[in-house]
Amino acid sequence: QSQLPATTPLSDAISKDMKKRGFTFVGPTIIYAHMQATGMINDHTQECFRHRECKRLARGQ
What we know:
Elements: H1 9-20, H2 28-37, H3 51-58
Helix pairs in contact: 1-2
């Protein structure tokens, strides 16, 4: 079974930027979890039955 990341370069950058702006408790893992929850990223593996549908929805189809 593949391991999914807890952070990405994008979540690291967003976290760093938000901390510069005075936000607290916004580490890269929390930002990544937010990105998952809001559909900004599709973490379903290709074997998952939801992967194709999530990918289609992300394209706006």
